[in-house]
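Quick look at the format.
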Amino acid sequence: MSVLSTGDLGWIQIGSFVLAGLLCLGAATALCRVPHPGLGPRTAPWLVGQYGLGMVLAGVFVADPLDGFPAGTPAGPGEVSWHGLAHLGAGVLAFTALIGACLVAGRRFARQGERGWAAYSVASGGYFAVAWVALMVTAGNPVAMLGFGAAAVVGWAWMSATLVRALRTG
């Protein structure tokens, strides 16, 4: 997904990273003001905020072209620039925070006896973690890339559903 920020239409992906990050920072602010059963009063807003910050930084520091994308780029990983390295660091910040938020929420939901929400949270964070590690270990294997794309959807779905739940129950 990050290489979509390269090329002529890269501004669209850059904008989506920044906008998504700003929305998460807003959600973190809202979570600080609303009591939210299941998420924890301090940890969840902090993790959601870290995820948002990582997304904004991923938009500011653009990924390097690689593996034929954008068109005309040679196959293979290519050289890593300073902004490509900063983009990777932003991803580490964002992804670690998202996984942590899922697991923290899962533990909290389990303590409250909400087994469905607990399972959903832990499964979402666990799948994201496995897909992220698989992507890194396989160095861009197409199956791992698809799995990670699906994990991004799962992560956003969890974030959206959990935030809606927090605002409705708060």
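Next, a different chain entirely:
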Amino acid sequence: MIQQTATSLTNLTERFQLLTERKKAQPRRVEPLDTLPSWPAGMRGTPNACLRSALFAGVQGNERIAYKKRTLLAAVDGIEVRYLGVQLNQSDLDVWMQIVHLSRTQLPGFSVTFSAHALLTALGRSTGKSQHEWLKESMARLGGAFVEITYHGRQTFGEKGFLRYHRDESTQRYVVELTESMLRLFEDGYTHIEFEQRQQLRKHPLALWLHGFLSSHAAPYPLKISTIHRLSGSSARTLRDFKYRLRKALDALVGIGCLESYVLSEDTVKIKKNPTPSQQRYLHNNIG
């Protein structure tokens, strides 16, 4: 009788352990987003994963490439970005940032409505037929891309597209819903981008990429030129060619007041930037 009871207890213990292991193996429930962060009208909130990787490359439109399989893009430590589709660049980031900006005061999952004319005007572009076609192409790229992002090797979010949309062809009005997985990028940190500064860098894709990257750091550390080349997704075939482009981009950033100065050596760039008021407070609290 004692032996039978001991056997029963052993079986119960094994069953309990088995149930516990099965429960652990079940997929973790991902809670929906409660809200989006907000920011002032003159800023554009942008996830750091978009600013510290080659997801939105610093390349011209005619330099785009197509990733025909799920490809690991360059990114800073702690972030893994895999991408499938036509390469996105800084102009596509402009479009996505503006739509997120329009959505920042409402709950995730609700659509936002705007006219193509209003969006193009907000981006400082002309509103002729060619620009309307440019916007259609950008919306298609943002809607068709497959992005998979892994944080610190622990959680991976993947989804097709940054957005879904409907366009009324007679009025050219868009109804857009932002995809939740891409909005989750805000949960791992985001940066306020000074919109007027960014507007002054149009047609300078590497300068635009650097503006976003440097804005996401209160006090940038010295960077290897090869690292910037890799993270920006540059199409420059040689570091010599890239260094020439980099110097022009840095000069543009100094010109708009984003940077105070820089020193470009053989293989490294040292940057002294003008921190924003919030970054000044951060530096004072953490260094002072």
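The CA atoms of residues 42 and 196 lie 7 Å apart.

See the schema section for token definitions.
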